[in-house]
């Protein structure tokens, strides 16, 4: 009987290991790319929120928002990726994230959906196509390609 239990445990461990590499991720669009970000970083998404412009900041920082008494910088993902900025519209969203206990907002063109992504399926971006803020890519079952958004690279974004 103990032999049978031993045979069942490796399967259970394999299932646990497989499920531990799957993360809930928010998919969103910015600069013509479809990106994803682990929901572990996300505090909330907001739309139609006024951004207060602050002079003498780097151009990729749109300004600040006052979110329930907390002032947060808002970074434009398009500008950090070296793309042209656009006017904010009703599709534009601010994703409020927490990176190493520092909350900030990122402006994206639109938010799509939350989906499960197996992190073992995420592959490095070919060097020729590598961009700032992107640290991997995954091909979904429908053939679409999603790019992994690197929150920690925001600190290195300088333009």
Write the layout of secondary structure elements.
Elements lengths: L1 H19 L1 E9 L2 E6 L3 E6 L13 E7 L2 E7 H4 L12 E7 L2 E7 L1 E9 L15 E6 L5 E5 L10
Parallel strand pairs: 2-10, 5-7
Antiparallel strand pairs: 1-2, 1-8, 3-6, 4-5, 6-7, 9-10
Question: What this model shows, in words?
Answer:
- The protein is mainly beta and 159 residues long.
- Helices cover 14% and strands 43% of the residues.
Features:
single chain, 159 residues, mainly beta, five-stranded mixed beta sheet, globular, disordered N terminus
Quick recap:
The protein has 2 helices and 10 strands. The chain is mainly β and 159 residues long.
- The total of beta strands comes to 10
Alpha-beta classification: mainly beta
Mean pLDDT: 84
Indicate the low-confidence ranges by residue numbers: 1-17
Secondary-structure element series: HEEEEEHEEEEE
Distance between the termini: 65 Å
Q: Which descriptor suits the 3D outline? A: globular
Helical stretch count?
Answer: 2
Helix content: 10-25%
